[in-house]
Amino acid sequence: MIVGPPPAGSVPPIVAPPAGVFVQAAPSAGQLIVPGSGQQTLTVPLLPTPATADTPVTVRSSDPAIASVVGSVVIPAGSQVATMTIATGTQGIAFLTMTAGAEVRELTVIVGTPPPATVPPIVAPPVQIDVAQ
């Protein structure tokens, strides 16, 4: 017990409950970059183990004017992936959040020219090397 002002260095730090909420983004399912409006069909891995029954996938778009999913999406029994058709429209970036059971993934869709620093540079090994003699 301390009576009066406590000696310097003897007071423990004050620990308070959090003042806000932090919402972590869903794990990434990758990026789809398309030059303009149209439709793209792709296969996205969503489940860590094969589905025991046909599993419906709910897809929510952050901006349906940029990207949305056409029709319903189902992961067939025995599979871990969903095949979906994505309709793209106006230029920009949209996030498609896919939920299958307890699994959530987010696909970034970029329509048009990607903004600087959005897409890392592509580095690929050479396809062929010709040596002149």
Largest sheet: 5 strands, mixed
- Strand percentage, roughly? 35-45%
CA gyration radius, whole angstroms: 24 Å
Going by CATH, what is the homologous superfamily of the domain at 28-111?
Immunoglobulins
**CATH class membership of the domain at 28-111:** Mainly Beta
According to CATH, the fold-level topology of the domain at 28-111 is: Immunoglobulin-like
- Mind telling me which CATH architecture of the domain at 28-111 this is? Sandwich
Overall mean confidence score, pLDDT: 83
Principal-axes shape call: elongated
Tally of separate helices = 0
The number of strands is 8
Strand order of the largest sheet: 1-8-7-3-5
Structural class: mainly beta
Which H/E pattern describes the elements? EEEEEEEE
Unreliable spans are none
End-to-end Cα distance, whole Å, is 89 Å
Specify the helix fraction band. under 10%
Describe the model.
By secondary structure, the protein is mainly beta. The protein has a domain of 84 residues: Sandwich (Immunoglobulin-like). Helices cover 0% and strands 41% of the residues. It has no helices and 8 strands. Strands 1-8-7-3-5 form a 5-stranded mixed β-sheet, with no helix packed on it. It has a 3-stranded antiparallel β-sheet with strand order 2-6-4, with no helix packed on it. β7 and β8 form a beta hairpin. The protein starts with 27 loop residues before the first strand and ends in a 22-residue tail after the last strand. The relative contact order is 0.24. The model has no long low-confidence stretch (mean pLDDT 83).
